């Protein structure tokens, strides 16, 4: 005790750093795992992984998984699960094809209509789960079968396509270079100035937001991240963003889906971290009874998380159909497993109440990079499945181990 | 007659609490021995020591059973020598048959294959013994609580019981079922089974027990013998409650104002057993600046009354009226009840009161998030300011408000729950067992908070199983029994004896 009171310096700081690290091991661990996995594949694929075209592909391939992971995170935080999203992706894609290809609807009519259908599907499932207290596993398992069957029926077992060009742009389009004069400025031929500038701006914004949050935390006596960690983490994130935007700039610029995905991620991160709605979802998942006795309308909240999930699954369905440029009865098969795996790798808890949007996105990227890297390496689909399964298991074991050690 | 069981100066301590302090209990062979005492007096702890739930070595003192020193390290060992406990909450599997339940864990089987013929035959014999005329194949959830109780006793008989312990066996039974059960106990006594019966119903104790031991505050107070002493209810009550009331409650000037909340003709039915009425025609008032108590035994319907008023969180077919400030209030959902000015601090803070994995701050603001947010966006700075304010004001012992509540002690967790409801700014707070499982120091602090609340002109409705607490804190006390408010006492005329006599005589 005597040394503690006379020397609060070095020893105390050491302890707080290790304490902080212990509490946030998961967050750092996940990002480090992503970096390690990327480094591994960068090496084993002889640099193919981080080529501009492949980075662009990574975003195109994983956008729909990430978009659904945003909704799935809310569902899982609320203490539920949604197994139907893969089938909903297939169904909405089929519906879009029927509307646009067979009925000749305009994309401006078909896209909103498909989103409304997604909302309705979410509402239909959420109704039984929230108000009838039927386990979400069962309701959405039924939904999985129903909508898989429904998309087969809609397409009559055939593939329907191709889609109008403007619909394809939803997925495979790129933002044109809005700042073409920059090219001349730097004297580079193939370079999308807008992509570079956007990347730099976002990197700056992240650092600025981090600094303000840090100042605020300090003012209110929150446990602050050690300065060294803060600097390294922000440099890494900002560096990664600038790097990726530079790579994208040298290819075709910013993909449309990246923008959609980025904006949605920011919206949902804000929703979960800073709004009463988000806070109540965490309370609902953490202790439903206590939440209800605190005046939270738990049923309505559960219902809304499924409505939201339905909408995002529909959006993912549209993006996926646009990417393939055709709707097939097999579209979206087992997507739900990738989405759920991404959320759990991202640190969410099966029992609800725990999980972060950023975690789910990083989790989706871990899965995405592994898919992509293993495919480039030419590893067979058999091994790929085994490896992905083991990674999921390892991530969750890591969680449980950590939690046991803490308590 | 020789003693079958002698428990000699049993002392059992839990961290911070001495639950049993040199308790002695002697039970003669072939008698029915009643064990009485208030909630929390130590009866259940004593029985857990006896049955080996708390194994030998975890308590001090000696148990002599059938003339020999007994050191049980688990229930299986005490059951092996014929000591069987039937708990208040029956331990039957509802969707298995009577026969399956009787031999659960003890099946008539060879190499894991059940012999159904033998099972059914033995079941029939046992059911006959306890006077239950049901087919052995009947599912347990198809028969009433009274018959389930008999199944439990049959199960005990199947294990060659010598000492049968029944914890509140008649608390959930109708008058008729109770009589049948007591008759069966007398019959078993004739066949040589010794029983210990824990009961609050003193008229039953008086009619059936050969001897009565009264326990209070973890100590044996007296043992009365029906053959020598005269066992009267007054005598038992006096022994049960007679303790001095030193300065355990902070002083408060009481000057109640206008009626803040009035409940009229409140009726509630059980959510599953829809034919069972849980609350009967309850009516009560709470004035501004007043602490009103509700006394009653566990299971008397106090929590059900409170939760049904608070947003219909319990029960169905609820009827009645709640007036706040003289105007009919909408309390049909929890958020409306909160908006009407009510708050309910639950008796079970871990499962109903707190989100354990969240921080102190997030728990405190949970019931009133709009207060710290604009357009649905939470201001974390404002939230922290609020939470820090409560942490300092009511002395929540934690390094900061970003501590998870799961790591706090019971007293500090309770303070977090209280903060949550203070922040919701209610007119009337319903406190359900506000000091359960809390050490003495924290109790005193919580009493202080309650006094401060009523000094601000709020009303407090306090449910407590600890009569001294009610007497020390309340301006008025309602007595509840079997779903009805059976008495009302002003502080000046209230005493533990009067409250207990309302309960045991209603």
TrEMBL record, chain A:
Gene Ontology MF: a single term: transmembrane transporter activity
Recorded topology in the membrane: Multi-pass membrane protein
One GO cellular component term noted in the UniProt record for this chain: plasma membrane
Transmembrane segments: 25-43, 55-76, 83-101, 107-130, 137-155, 191-211, 223-246, 252-271, 301-322, 342-367
InterPro entries reported in the protein's UniProt record: ABC_transp_permease
Protein location: Cell membrane
Keyword annotations: Cell inner membrane, Cell membrane, Membrane, Sugar transport, Transmembrane, Transmembrane helix, Transport
Keyword Cell membrane tagged: yes
Pfam family, one: BPD_transp_2
UniProt cross-references to NCBIfam families, sorted A to Z: GguB
Primary role: Part of the binding-protein-dependent transport system for D-xylose. Probably responsible for the translocation of the substrate across the membrane.
PANTHER family per the UniProt record, alphabetical: ABC TRANSPORTER PERMEASE PROTEIN YPHD-RELATED-RELATED, XYLOSE TRANSPORT SYSTEM PERMEASE PROTEIN XYLH
Protein name per the record: Xylose transport system permease protein XylH
Higher taxonomy: Bacteria, Pseudomonadati, Pseudomonadota, Alphaproteobacteria, Hyphomicrobiales
Automatic annotation (TrEMBL), chain B:
Cellular location(s): Cell membrane
Membrane topology: Peripheral membrane protein
The organism's place on the tree of life at top rank: Bacteria
Domain ABC transporter: 5-242, 263-503
Any single GO CC term annotated in Swiss-Prot or TrEMBL for this entry: plasma membrane
UniProt cross-references to InterPro entries, sorted A to Z: AAA+_ATPase, ABC_carbohydrate_import_ATPase, ABC_transporter-like_ATP-bd, ABC_transporter-like_CS, L-arabinose_ABC_transporter, P-loop_NTPase
Glycoprotein keyword on record: no
NCBIfam families for the chain: GguA
PANTHER family tied to this protein: CARBOHYDRATE TRANSPORT ATP-BINDING PROTEIN MG119-RELATED (PTHR43790), XYLOSE IMPORT ATP-BINDING PROTEIN XYLG (PTHR43790:SF1)
Family the entry assigns: Belongs to the ABC transporter superfamily.
Protein name: ABC transporter ATP-binding protein
